[in-house]
Amino acid sequence: MFPFKPITRSNCGRSICGTQKHLCSMVLLLTILAPFSFAQSVLPPPQGTQADASFADSFRLNHVTNVFATTQKISCYTPEVPYAGNLGPTNGYTGETPCNGSANTGEDLGPYPTQSVVNRSFLVNNHSESDLRIDPTNLNHLIGQTKWFVSAEGYNHLQGFYESFDGGKTWPVQGHVPGYEGFTDNTDPVGAFDGFGNYHALLLPYQFSYDKSGGQVFNNGSSLPNPALPGEAISSAVRPHGAISASDWSFTHNRGLDYLMTAPNAHSNDPDKQWITVDLNPSSPHYNRIYAMWTLFAFNPSSVFVSFSDANADGSHTDWSTPAVLPTINGHPWDSYMLPHVAPDGTVYTTETNNPSQQGFQFADLYVISSSDGGVTWQTPVLVHHDIFVPTYQNTTFREGIVNTFAVGHHLINGHYPLYVSWEDGASGVSNLYLTTSTDDGVTWSTPIVVNDNGNPVDELQPNLNVADNGVTDTVSVAFYDRRLSCPAAGTAEAIAGGIALDPGTGASPGTPYGRSNYCINTAIQFYTATLTPIGHNIRLSRHTWDPQLNAPHPHCICNSETFIGDYFGNSSSPSTEYTTSVSTFDDGSNTNHYQQQVVASVPIPKR
């Protein structure tokens, strides 16, 4: 969501005041000095580097498939607060487009019972930031979630979902997640299946209106666009096992919307960065316990919370526990990015990212905490890695996302379930990805290894960990966005289908980026054994290189140059197949407007 994220170099362009202006000045100075003051050599990855041509061809050699999932249906919904701003058509934007009967998802087009006004429905065009989960009761059943935009210019979106019943080949059921349409936005898609096959989405609905320049305005009480609802909430919705239609969701609990926490304002008292997991281990004493975590930002100092409930077979759940503050490092109230996972013995772990205000939020420390009694009490944080240099990406305008990712193994190593943490670091002048493991519950960590194996220095970003269990051993993977392949050359079929002519350019990289390096994007993945021995090289998961500047949402204001491709994307697996869902603006024949679409990639997990 980020109506009020702790300041980093990537969001200093927003409207700010007072002390934060001075912090942004410091951040921007660090941006200038970073490649010189903090530059460091980067050791090669343990698998060695590979040539760009080899990486480009790895898509074919590893039998990767791509499916443009979110182009398979046409979705519309009625926003609580419409937005009239439009950056098109010169730069490819379309603004809000009236639905005019084009929807074929079968979802309710509105207006909705929770709304305060009657508006008309608009086409869902862009789909950025995503999560992907596999039903443990049916490995061919996948649900993805993503931001479901009716306006990229106004950052106007709800959470949407897309569902497959054939292992990701087709995605016939799609729509917005219902129940929270009375809020302006509903954001940060994440969900998890329980052991009964019910899917639990953890939501972040919030309210704002627009000023005359297109900026977001956050108010309280009767000044909210919809005074009947809180300014912001952490909330839940459930898609029950066996659901068929786009509207088959349960979003109430105890005769009201299923809130875990509410706040009067989405700017100064801001719950954000929620995440969810479910204990799927039948031998665990807390089998089917749902763990929800989030951060509460209050003018930047933050507290982190946990709440839990127990899933029932019919898709309902017990009452959420009273939100409890999680332990952090004393005197350092700058924590966020909890990413909970449960080990087979029922111990729940999460990372905490401490990003303090000193030096303009430029450095981050990673910690792990755990609970062995179902989330009631928690261990003191243990350090994973110190002084990560939070990157800012070169040439383009999309902001830096979640700096780290976390996962837990399924099989014991040295009597402990292994913990894995990966992160991005910009100390070398570009962003590189690192990976470490602990086999003693986080007391000690292996020497970090470089994940990306590009030969030339470019930004590698947004790592996403997963651990696949084949019943005997684990295969670890890190998926990420990769920028080693240059944008397509002028006049080529790839450049035409990629919409490169529509690129608006940036101050750092003016002009149309034909053939430009460290600009366009692919999705990639690296596989490892459970002890982090690399299995081959990075594999390209994108059939086509795409331009991140096309139709890129503006997360704060149409008057601001900062744009968005998502802060994370989905990575999940069956025992034999890895799946990711990530952004592309390429036109494969189904994306003629070069919107941000979700492409689901699948690749056989390599044998060792």
**What fraction of the residues are assigned to beta strands by DSSP?**
25-35%
CATH domain topology: Neuraminidase
| CATH level-two architecture | 6 Propeller
Distance between the termini: 40 Å
Low-confidence stretches: 1-38
> What kind of sheet is the major sheet?
5 strands, antiparallel
Overall outline: globular
What this model shows, in words?
This protein is mainly β and about 600 residues long. It has one domain (about 10-40, about 50-605): Neuraminidase (6 Propeller), CATH 2.120.10.10. About 5% of the residues lie in helices and about 35% in strands. It contains 3 helices and 36 strands. It has helices at about 20-35, 50-60, 495, and strands at about 65-70, 75, 120-125, 125-135, 140-150, 155-165, 175, 185, 190-195, 200-205, 210, 215, 230-240, 250-255, 255, 260-265, 270-280, 290-295, 300-310, 325, 335, 340, 350-355, 365-370, 380-390, 405-410, 420-425, 430-440, 450, 460-470, 475-480, 520-530, 535-540, 570-575, 575-585, 595-605. The strands form 10 sheets. Strands 8, 9, 10, 13 and 16 form a 5-stranded antiparallel beta sheet that branches. Strands 21, 22, 23, 24 and 25 form a 5-stranded antiparallel beta sheet that branches. It is globular, with a radius of gyration of 22 Å. The model is unreliable at about 1-40 (pLDDT under 50).
